[in-house]
Amino acid sequence: MARIEPVAKADWPSEITDFIANFQASVRGDRPPGNRPGGVNLLGTLVRYPELAMPFLTFNGHFLYGNSLSPRHREMLILRVATLRHCDYEWAQHTLLAGDAGLSAQEIEYATAGPDTPGWAPIEQALLRAVDELIGDGAIGGDTWKLLAAEFDEKQLMDVVFTVATYEMVAMMLRSLDVDPEPDLVPHLPDRK
Description:
AhpD-like, mainly alpha, 64% helix
């Protein structure tokens, strides 16, 4: 049960409803809304604090629709954060986005196993290793940085760090507030071996 009960969508103030609708449209881009869960419990929790919700969602929106990384690489980073932070809600939401970004079901599962799983391209191994290092050590190690810097420009390198940091913060919030995944939001983190 959530520690801070989400506000029911019907009770959201119009200023927040409009803001979130615009935010979701920006994130979705040209894709039709489909029949997917839209993070109502997360958003409903944030609605309790509009002064935080609107600037945070604007900031977070960069990592969903303004990120200089490819959607595939962005989602790999987020799935690895969700794995390391044991965040089912984040995992469930981003497995959907990862599929949209072209990751196969097997690759999505491999994100739980980490950078040494066979089948990743060298740059993708470096991205997953960067997540492990950022969360474990608070910084990307020198060898990993060299691999990333050989492939990515300065903006992309900054987006690697900020994407991991942002979604680690989101995972901490989701778990600390015990935000429940929506009932129709299915995949939970696979058990790691």
